[in-house]
Structures are given as C-alpha cells and as structure tokens.
Design goal:
about 400 residues; globular; mainly alpha; single chain
Length: about 400
Amino acid sequence: MPLAIYAMALAAFAIGSAEFIVSGILPPLATDLAVSIPAAGMLVTVYAIGVAIGGPVLTVMAARYSPRSIIIAALILFALAQVLCAVAPGYQLLLVARLIAACGHGVFFGAGNVVVARLVPLERRGSAFALFIGGITVANLLGLPGGAAIGNAFGWRAAFVAVAVLGAIATIVILTRVPRESPDAHPRTSLRNQLQALRHQEVFLSFLTIIIIMTAILTFGTYQVPLLMEVTGVQQDLVPLYLLLGGVGSVIGIYSGGRLADWRPMPSLIAVLLLLSLSFGAMLFTMHHPLLMAINLLLGNLFGFAFSTPLQLRIMQAARAAPNLASSLISTSFNIGIASGATLGALLLSSGFRYEHLPWVGVFSGVAAAMVAAFSWGLERRHHRLAA
C-alpha cells in the first residue's frame, strides 16, 4: 500500500478523534460549563450538522482547486478550530468552534476519498478505503478513550489541545507524502452533471442506509459514558478501558469491511446490518453486567463499523462522474445520522426515557437499514438482468 495512504489515514485519525472526543469527556465538560448532559451532547449534533452542510457547500466552492490543496487547507482550519475549542470560555463559543472544525472535516473527507481512489488500482480500492477510513476507527480505538483519559487527568480542555497537535502533525505528513497532481488529474464536471450522477439508486439508497445506521449508533454512542457509569456501574477511571475495548471492535470491523468490499459486498453488508441489530438487542440484557457489557461493546462496534467500507465503495463506483461531491455527501450522510442520533438521544432522555432504553433504537434501525440495502441490491440485480 502506498505510504501516502498511511499519511491520509493519520489525518483521518486526527479528525476522527475530534469528532468522537466529546463523548469521552461529556460529564466533566458539562459540569465545568454548567450545562446538562443532553445539552453537552448537542456539541456532537452541532459538529455533525457542520459536516453535513458545510462539507458539500465548501466542496462545490473549492472545485477549482486540486484535492491535495483542499486537504491541506481543511487540516489547517481544523487544527486552528481545536485550539479555539481548548480556550473557549463558555458553551456558546465552544459550539462555534466545533462548527468551524466540522467544516474542515467535511471538506477533508470529500477530497480525501478522491485522493485515495487515485493512489491504488481498482481491485485494491476496498482495502485502501478501509485503511483510510481506518484512521477514524483507530480514533475510536485510541482517540475516544485517550481523550477521556487526558480529560480525566488534565481537564477536558487538554483533550482539545492534544487533537490540535495531531492535526498539525497530520498536515505536515500530508505535505510531504501525498504527491501533487498534474493539472489534468482532476477534470471539472458541471454541477448539473454531478447532481445527475447522484440520482442513481445505488447512491441515494446507500446514503439512506448510512443515515439510518449512524442514527442508531450515535443515539447510544453519544451517551455511552454516562450509561456505563450509571447503569453498568463502571467507575469513571475504568471507563476509558471499556471505550478502548469498543475501539478494538471498531478496528476489526473496519478492516473486515474492507475485505468484504473486495469480496461479496452486498450479501456481507446485509448480514452485518442484521448482526448489528442483534448486538443492540443483546445489550438490553447485558448492560447491567460489566463483563458482558464489555463483550457486547466489542461486538457491537465490530458490526457498527464493518458496514462502512462496502457502502462507501458502492457509492464511489456508482457516482464516478461526481467523485468529489459524492465523497463529500458520504460525510454528510454519516453526520446527518450522527446529528440525528445525538439529538434523538437528547430528546428521549429529556422526555423521561432512561439510558437503558437507548439500544432499542439500534434494534429497529439495524433491521430497517438491512431492508433498504436488500431493496437496493435487488434493484441492481434486476437492472443487470434486463441489460444482459
């Protein structure tokens, strides 16, 4: 695998750490800023909205520039925003700083998928995407529990400082390892033609599948730390170990998903989504038992990340005429789901639901996503039969 792919994965790790980090420092952050846990959880929602809206808009505006240049500019914006998060004196400015960081996030992944696709031949793209996206997964493995540990030891602001340093390092590595493109390496396509490419059912139904699954994952994931402490009975200093175990499952899942994408993507995807629903159902019975909950977090994160690469590769192949916009809208789909999940969780908790009720969203959403994926695959197979 080209060294440039690893450089892109490092940048993805930095950005993924910023997205996940709030979940790991939610209780001390909420206490310090004198806001409720659901209100602090809205920092996840705002970030996701920034990625969902800012990413595609800025991608269209920056279409005249090379993907490499876009990536570098996005990383600089991201790192500066993390510094602003660290020094923000109140909740409102922290919201604004998270929004700025989110815009850099959306643009980065919009251009990043295009760069990764051009660095490897078609038959290795599944593995390459898995490695690139794996940067986010490793952030879930190390960034989330690492941020929680840093927050516990030095205060939640130090966690944002650490992410800013990661962003700066990633920028330097990208500058030195990702090759410059020739002027004709990124031909321009009209916005109208790009939008037409997105009308393919394999594209928009894959977007819908991503949104459904991420809503389920983040309804639980945003509030997993208080759930572990209040329901499972895990002591605060042991929470990072549980998050680390969940991260191990995520890493296994993302790389397994890359293998599946190069093998039989759609049957494997549907099976993974059903297994994810089953893992959320099992959580209803394991969350009161620390050991069983730890195992459930491992398996749930495995299935919760294995779906990603097959769907992203499916979108990029079906929307070849609009790679930048399609790639940016992948991040939009993920973050619409993230925002929906964090918001739904906050609404449920504010309405009187308890933490132990949140996995029910995952049970039903996993089945719904599997049905959408199966329907899309059926349409695809029918189209191939008619064309033959």
